[in-house]
Amino acid sequence: xxxxxxxxxxxxxxxxxxxxxxxxxxxxxxxxxxxxxxxxxxxxxxxxxxxxxxxxxxxxxxxxxxxxxxxxxxxxxxxxxxxxxxxxxxxxxxxxxxxxxxxxxxxxxxxxxxxxxxxxxxxxxxxxxxxxxxxxxxxxxxxxxxxxxxxxxxxxxxxxxxxxxxxxxxxxxxxxxxxxxxxxxxxxxxxxxxxxxxxxxxxxxxxxxxxxxxxxxxxxxxxxxxxxxxxxxxxxxxxxxxxxxxxxxxxxxxxxxxxxxxxxxxxxxxxxxx
Amino acid sequence: xxxxxxxxxxxxxxxxxxxxxxxxxxxxxxxxxxxxxxxxxxxxxxxxxxxxxxxxxxxxxxxxxxxxxxxxxxxxxxxxxxxxxxxxxxxxxxxxxxxxxxxxxxxxxxxxxxxxxxxxxxxxxxxxxxxxxxxxxxxxxxxxxxxxxxxxxxxxxxxxxxxxxxxxxxxxxxxxxxxxxxxxxxxxxxxxxxxxxxxxxxxxxxxxxxxxxxxxxxxxxxxxxxxxxxxxxxxxxxxxxxxxxxxxxxxxxxxxxxxxxxxxxxxxxxxxxxxxxxxxxxxxxxxxxxxxxxxxxxxxxxxxxxxxxxxxxxxxxxxxxxxxxxxxxxxxxxxxxxxxxxxxxxxxxxxxxxxxxxxx
Lengths: 274, 360
Description:
Chain A: This is Carbohydrate ABC transporter permease. The complex is a heterodimer. By secondary structure, chain A is mainly alpha-helical.
């Protein structure tokens, strides 16, 4: 009995240490965002600022056109998430339920492209978009991210787990392929689709390198790119940078908290036996 | 609706799943497709549903050739082995789904769905999701959904195999009741001979894609057309003895002991006295003959088992083991020799080369 409590205590200790390790950068970020400029770099470091500077947040917000950046980030996030969901649903259905010539080979090739590191694609993609004349437009920020092999793979596996009889039943009930996909498969795949959407949203919101490369004018930039404003030739204003960063990650944290039950939620296998 | 299968054949790559099946199913009857797994019964059902296209042959629903008609235009309802209910919809929505697809006005659709739910006795469960129902209740929902469009043909694919024994009996009666109340032509796939015997007007027994016999269940049991039918039907299974036929075409020579037994009728077709034959007798068609002067097969008793009302007798004739269900009134002991007689008209004689029944 005692032994059990001891081992349980040990496990909790490990978990607490682990989560502290993960949380520390966030705590440091928030702490720095509330410090006065002269307190940021002092040794030994101070976890709790002597004088809490809420003003940093206001100063940070107005030191660059963050309102414009926010609008851009939101537009890109919504467009690319919806776009990716549509392409993913259609592709996953085709790869799991429609028999067409070369299906499995095409799918293997698609999976193969996941091995290619994203950095390799930066230059070819840039050249393509620049030939299309899309540089410094929303298309450049959205179109390259409208499909994801990983999401297709994820959803295809989910679709494969839905029994074939369901589509037979739907066919007898007079339901077309397309109708079946939207009114049966998609509702059933809700947990998987929400997972895909969240991963996409976080990725899109935090994207830095690509928006930095394909945008040049102030009014096309997104939030992460906007953070550059705090690094100038005369040095970095850490307290403002951290204040801005805290504001930027807030929507993603809220989104995650609201939707996490869907990510964890088991797949409903109701009504299907055998 | 009258259903006709003419030379229906289904091939997958090199495998012939169904081989020139010819069956006519009369309107309003319940027909079971029976056979061991892999015999093509489910494939046949899927062809009737329009989910598979027959490779050859013609399929008629009434007077209409339906080979190329899509499932939704065949006026059929189908219940799957795993019920295939839509998990995200309530019971009511599940039943309404086919009507919604047929663009029936919502109010009318709901009315019809409620009517159907009442018929299958699940009208108190309409707001539940399928996951909140027991197997038997899910089954009823599936039947209601299949019937709500008022189809002309109901197809059931092993609908009872996922239920426990007690529920299976109950649902079996339910299916029969609903079928007779609606008067719909029904085709029922099963591998359970007892299920097929109890529920159907007629049974089609299949093996390796070929139809073996199509007849009312009792006829199939009493007058099997071939050895496979005789062996498939009945539990405990029919006894088979390798025998020879005498020159008079009526005397049978039993194995090992060379005893003889007189058949009560002549064989249907001429049989060479050298050909190898199998004598088939169902365990319950034996009885113990105490009058030594009368005809019978003398066997040695190996074991006697009391099974409820009757005794199951394990006996041996030479090298062949026999099973007989006999009245417990006659006391027999292990090692004893007894004479088993066969009820009149209950002998079957099969030609071993092609399995044909030579007596009926």
